[in-house]
Amino acid sequence: MADEEFVVTPYEVRGKVDHERLREQFGAERLTPALLERLRGLAGGELHPLLTRGVYYSHRDLARLLDRHAKGEPFFVYSGRGPSGPLHTSHLVPFELCRWLQEKLGIEMYIQITDDEKFWFRPHLTRAETYRWGIENLTDLLALGFDPKRTHVFFDTRSIGAMYSIAVDVAKRIPYSTVRAVFGFPPSQNIGLVFYTALQTVPAFYPSWVAGRPVNCLIPCGIDQDPHFRVTRDIAEGLGYPKPGLLHSVMLPGLAGDKVMSTTGDTRDNALFLNDPPKEVARKLRKAFTGGRTSVEEQRRLGAVPEVCSVWAQWRSRFAESEAEFETITADCRSGKLLCGDCKANLIERVNGFLAAHEARRPAARELAESVILETAPPRATPTS
Ligand code: SF4
Predict the structure, then answer these.
(1) How far is 84 from 137, CA to CA, in rounded Å?
(2) Nearest-CA neighbor of 48 among 142, 144, 138?
(3) Cα(309) to centroid of ligand 1, in Å?
(4) Based on CB atoms within 10 Å of each CB, which residue in 122, 217, 232, 301 is the most buried?
(5) pLDDT, tens digit, for every residue of 235-250?
(6) What CATH architecture does domain 6-255 belong to?
């Protein structure tokens, strides 16, 4: 999607994104307080901070999924990761929500690790590298605490035996013109990424395919990924599967404040990576873009602007541990009571505490990884199409 001020596709985000306008242009629905209250009711009276703080703000078909769930037809959640390097804190946003939904609603979780896609997409990466990052990223995701009995992983180059039957059906339904129009591929595009559109659809349909009946799917993702799943939704019912619902998050700013976090190249300073040592975290956060004023005196007098601050974005998306703490940080920032240097020092301590605890959970998660990767699908007597 192109606009005079910003460009958003699944492969590119440029400019200052107006999320509300993007939602309208995509034709998605606003995540209303009434819908959130319904989810709170199903989740035993709680809501995840990513929901209460507005990081998730848009959806497709969530009301239908909640209706069905309340009637005893649970949905499952699906999210994916393209492994091209270490995870950073923004990558955790969909997975944190999925883990919470799994815990609160007792539902199944499907993770797709797209090592094939990243090999096709990034010319400099070898298959050995995307595979290695796939295992590393999966380990980090499992260390968030997913229930191993309810968690299933498609690791594309290992799971193709489980995926291929559905991918074959899907690929026949998607014309090349659709893929080219949705993703803006040039004529020189390798055909791997063209076929990948079919592979990304598989997890949304797999539980229905295995069960032989419709099983609803909810996909939490950044709103930039919506075009991928619009293609999935367009073909779902023609293949006998329910359309997956979507929950869209905003794209969080990187530490430079002006663009989203990235994994590669000279933008490493723009993100907090899960393998950053403590000194690196401190160095990056000390120079992070803020909404502060040019002098202490001015900030005490006028207050700062949290909405434009990359440090506040970190408190908002992950590191404020309670609503009370988040509200205090926000109010004290606005009033000038909190200064940026102190705020950053507090965040450095919080991030490094989280990373140390996360590192300690990784060995058990690495062992778990092998047991949750799907390598073959259950036998089916006949193809469905
Ligand atoms: S006080 Fe904190 S949240 Fe507010 S602008 Fe400064 S760094 Fe950002």
Answers:
(1) 9
(2) 144
(3) 6
(4) 217
(5) 999 999 999 999 999 9
(6) 3-Layer(aba) Sandwich (3.40)
